[in-house]
Amino acid sequence: MDCTLFIPHLLPPIVQAEALWRTVDAPQLKTLLAHASLVSDAATSAETWLCGTFGIARQQDFPLAALLAADENLNAGRGYWLNATPVHLETRRNALMLTDPAMLEITADESTALAATLAHHLHEENVTVHAPQPGHWYLHSDAAPVMTTSSLGTVTGRDVRPFLPQGQDSARWHRILTEIQMLLHSHPLNDAREARGRLPVNSVWLWGGGTLPAPVSAPFTTVWSGDRIVRALAHHSGCPCEPRLVQIAPETLKRGSHLFSFEQLETLLRLGDAHAWSNAVTALNRDWFIPLLDALKARCLLSLTVISADETGIRKFIIHPIDMIKFWRKNKYL
After folding, report:
1. Is residue 159 a part of any domain in this protein?
2. Listed residue (301, 316, 333) closest to 21, CA to CA
3. DSSP string, 53-65
4. Residue 110: which domain range?
């Protein structure tokens, strides 16, 4: 069996790496990574790696909006789809920062009302609004604009201005975005949210535009994930997708090729909680890397691939059973 673990931010940012790595009680993980072959690619993001792995080609963007809409049972097979994630933008000094959307905790009633306001306004633009779930909004148009966007993960916690839509039709969408912000700013629901101590929903982030691609063959036997993008990619490829496991179990290690994804480390580092990140990596070692190291030593596992991704690119660690007896190998990256 081949096992791939996709763990964004498994490795801490370079500026914090030495101090943070020392706080992690994970000898088995460190042993595995130290004996691995390492492939680094600064030009590849987590989104690029995931889409490439599942055979999804870049259009202008990777067409994640259409894939996500299809996974939410919307009629995504026609036209152009664009994620319009409701967000809170905050002015800090000379920057316009995008707060983690998970902190908004939008209710179903709020989502329906706010999306309806946008839908009424955008009707004249021949753009429809779909809000199947709170926090998951989509814009649809028959014609695809000539425009590229930046992913939500790229801009969360950062100044959004360098990442606004670009391209021949971007001026129109900048105008639409400004109008959306004005509508949301004056919406009474946002006044009510602020009165309750909640952040107002004062903008949307546009990303992942495209048309639904043709189905592709599944690259894995099974995918185990709680991430909506990973799950949408798996479903589009016809790959069985199971809920994310808390820990690996021997009976899970069946024949075939399996992908396990973990998203919590990225959230913790984004929130600046280094202590919680360290504890989470230690827990991953206990629940995953100890049994996986045992499986490699027993040759029950043919290969283990660990993918860490952050804003500096991806790092792919590949370990085979024979690598564990190469006592002289020492990964220079670590």
Report:
1. yes
2. 333
3. HTTPPPSSS--HH
4. 64-210
